[in-house]
Amino acid sequence: MYNVTLIPGDGIGPEVTGAARRVLEATGVKFDWDIQQAGEAQIAIHGSPMPEETMHSIERTKLALKGPVNTPKGGGFRSVNVLLRQKFDLYANLRPAKTIPNIMSRYENVDIVVVRENTEDLYAGIEHMVGEDAAESIKIITRKGCERIARFAFDYAVKNGRKKVTAVHKANIMKCTDGLFLKVVGEVAKEYPAIQFEDVIVDAMCMKLVQTPENYDVLVLPNLYGDIVSDLCAGLVGGLGIAPGANIGVGCSVFEAIHGGAPDIAGKGIANPTAVILSGAMMLRHLGEAAAADKVESAIVALIQRGEVTRDLGGSLGTDAFTDSVIREMAR
Ligand code: NAI
């Protein structure tokens, strides 16, 4: 029995995390879910989008499956996601993007894993106005932060039979911050002679990913570029509806899709739950439940191959009907 904090979140969050819960339970693995809230609605109740109880629950379970939490643009409360990642030191954000045969996408044979540093960079949120007409944001990059994310990326490559790690940066312009990132990742690379290492400047990387994504394997990036490039990679393999993610720390992990609350489709019963379901499969693997994870992933692949999918992928199924199909497929 695994104790897991389940955070439904905002927008489509309750719909897609509810679907993921049903699928994970149908694997036969036993979970004791501690359902906790986070999101916009919590401000009126607790004065904060992230109630203390939710934090305490994660401190206890050390494991969460989380729906998206909306963050206001340009003002308002700080991102709950950034807060969680900093508070539990979830330093590695793992975002795989792999082509599923028959999926509606412009590309074939994409198999990229984005390893994004999750606690530093401009996301440290240290910014202020300088007078009324200027604003300043501080970009923090540390040797410790670079070393551990680089080691995570190379260890991941070794454990998962990957061949190449590409460091993505803008060290030609940000010579101190990105320069340190590139230097330290390069030093760590020397400890892994069996893994090919290269570096690419982030703007060129975006172009290369759009032209020849099949040339890339594991990417390691500082926080901001990692966020942007992982959405780009999601777009190469079918979009945000199928892109899972994991935030991994030393003693605590939070699994969540890349996508946000999708306010344009929230409450309509049409959201694609695949991304959160696949995040749940990543959680199963993390727990050592590889057979159950395989079962979930194979069912999703089979449904996509048969075109039994939600609208974002060109199908006609709603969230619940798709979830029913996944569960039926797992039982076959
Ligand atoms: P979004 O990811 O919510 O939506 C972008 C587009 O993708 C929309 O057209 C949406 O309908 C579509 N989409 C996303 N997930 C989908 C799914 N599962 N099935 C079908 N279509 C899907 O990004 P947006 O609109 O920029 O952000 C909305 C809110 O989400 C913002 O407040 C943002 O701060 C928050 N957000 C939260 C995240 C998190 O909690 N980890 C991550 C990203 C955004």
Note down, in words, how this protein is organized.
With 332 residues, this protein is of the alpha/beta class. Helices cover 40% and strands 17% of the residues. The chain contains eleven helices and twelve strands. It has helices spanning 13-26, 42-46, 52-61, 80-87, 143-159, 177-189, 202-211, 223-236, 274-286, 290-305, 319-331, and strands at 2-7, 31-35, 63-66, 92-98, 111-117, 127-129, 135-137, 164-169, 196-201, 218-221, 246-248, 253-256. A ten-stranded mixed beta sheet has the order 2-1-3-12-11-4-5-10-8-9, sandwiched between helices. Strands 6-7 form a two-stranded antiparallel ribbon. Helix 1 (13-26) packs across helix 9 (274-286), helix 7 runs parallel beside helix 8 (223-236) and helix 9 runs antiparallel to helix 10. It is globular and about 55 Å long. The two termini are 24 Å apart. 1,4-dihydronicotinamide adenine dinucleotide binds next to loops. 1,4-dihydronicotinamide adenine dinucleotide is lined by residues 12, 16, 68-71, 81, 240-241, 256, 259-265, 271-272, 275, 312.
Give structural attributes.
12 strands, 10-stranded mixed beta sheet, 332 residues, alpha/beta, two-stranded antiparallel ribbon, binds 1,4-dihydronicotinamide adenine dinucleotide
What is this structure, in a nutshell?
The protein is of the alpha/beta class. It is built from eleven helices and twelve strands. It has helices spanning 13-26, 42-46, 52-61, 80-87, 143-159, 177-189, 202-211, 223-236, 274-286, 290-305, 319-331; strands at 2-7, 31-35, 63-66, 92-98, 111-117, 127-129, 135-137, 164-169, 196-201, 218-221, 246-248, 253-256.
